[in-house]
Amino acid sequence: TLGTQTDYRDGEAQTDPYSPEYIVRSGSVPEILTLATLTWGRGLPAGQAEMEIIDRIREKRAWEAALPPMDSPSNIAKRLKMMEAMERKEWAYREEEIDKLQKVQMEVFKKLLQRREENRNELNAMCLNNHWQNHQKAKEEKIRKIQHDCALMLRKLIAKRKNWMGKLERRDIIREYNDFSSQTYAPLSRIGFFPDSNSDYYAVKNYYLNTFAGLCELEKSVQPSVFPLKIKAPKPKCIITKTGYIKRSGKLEVVVAQVHQ
């Protein structure tokens, strides 16, 4: 009825397979002892490379068993010749292994160089894109300035073309007052008019309103019958109780009547 929750997964908690202890009889060399250096994760479970190593070990043991004894000069010469042939075979096998390893390393180097080249190309493309965007922004800003200057020069040329002979014209007051963008309504600052400096030009300035003495004099000139105030309180539109409280129904009736009107 109880369970436990560990912090490790099954793959991390799995141990190496159990290897029972063994006893080797005297005078015997089991073939399986040649694989004692292989452990789980290092050669086990056996693959193609491990099977090739096992076949080479078997071939070497058979070759060692086939060596002639060193009991005569002919057998010694034959033994030396067989050992030289085996040594050349071993060197050829090692060279083949070195070639395979170099090929694998070359493939790894090619992939690394290709990846570095791709990263460099991507970075260069990003830099070129940024430069292109900056040049495009500068180009658009320059085109906008050229168009603005072009419009300004065209307006100047149009204004000069209206009176290209330089003749003096009389002032047309009716046309100026009819055009709200003329100098009469909207004078320019470059001709000496500053509207902010005379902001109180149209303000009403009255002696009787701005000074205390004027107010006193104005009060003396007014008839006494003007001063008494007669205010009539408006009649309530709602029904009021004796205590002066307006009912909620009365308020709603007034609102509904206003909405109806």
Automatic annotation (TrEMBL):
Keywords in alphabetical order: Cell projection, Cytoplasm, Cytoskeleton
InterPro entries on file: CFAP91, CFAP91_dom
Primary location recorded for the protein, binned into one broad class: cytoplasm
Top-level taxon in the UniProt lineage: Eukaryota
Keyword Cytoplasm tagged: yes
One matching Pfam family: CFAP91
Subcellular location: Cytoplasm, Cytoskeleton, Cilium axoneme
Boundaries of every CFAP91 domain copy: 4-156
GO cellular component: axoneme
Record family assignment: Belongs to the CFAP91 family.
Protein name per the record: Cilia- and flagella-associated protein 91
Organism name: Vidua macroura
Source lineage: Eukaryota, Metazoa, Chordata, Craniata, Vertebrata
Gene for this chain: Maats1
